[in-house]
User: Fold this.
Amino acid sequence: MSKLLEAQPRRVETIEPGAVQLVQITDCHIFASADEKLRGLNTRRSFEAVKAAVADNAGDPDILLATGDLSQDGSADSYRYLAGQFDDLGVPTFWLPGNHDDSAVLEKNFTGKQIDAARQILAGCWHIVMLDSTIRGEVHGRVAEAQLAFLDAALQQYPDRHALVCLHHQALETGSEWIDLKGLRDADQLRARLARHRNIRAVLWGHVHQEFHRSIDGVEWMSTPSSCVQFKPGSKEFSIGEESPGYRYLRLNQDGSLETAVHRIESID
Ligand SMILES: [Fe+2]
Assistant:
């Protein structure tokens, strides 16, 4: 896809004018093999359990967001499997890459009737901007000048819409020292750039495999549990969390406010 096409917004029609229902699923870490496990957890089975929970409990979402680390091994088969799974839900699905993804393989294979690589989405009164914070071969992230310029241009195009900005890496430190060291190296620059725009309502990411939500000066800063392995909140060193996999539901209101909740599946082996 050309840079120009990437920048084109896709208008998503919503059932209820003004309110947009959105589900974020993140850090699926799918393998090419159906039997492979991450830290003892079969990531396909946990994804399918999260998907069933979305189908059963998330109402009738207008949009699904897949915010990176869709694959653990960057394989074509992992993306093809996951594309079929997302397509089953029958909801327009937008994605951005994470540090475990191979962007070229992802773009080529994570395709389907419902899957769209657009980097801007217009929905209700909202404008959703999808950033790429990955650096090839690195765990940590960076938005760098090209992405910041894209963000500026995108936001300037729709100053009257409420904006939700999505990326893979954390835009704020989450309080887990080890993962914060593997976060967004230029988070200060991103926050400074966001502060120039008065219509930013929320920033949403994955990567940290845990729930986080802070409200600062009218902006909601949020991360979401992985659909597989959880990381223990507040841990100084790498530590697996006991919580179940989950997803985040968001209702984006016409007035720029939002309601959100994290839902976790009951249990998984
Ligand atoms: Fe991840």
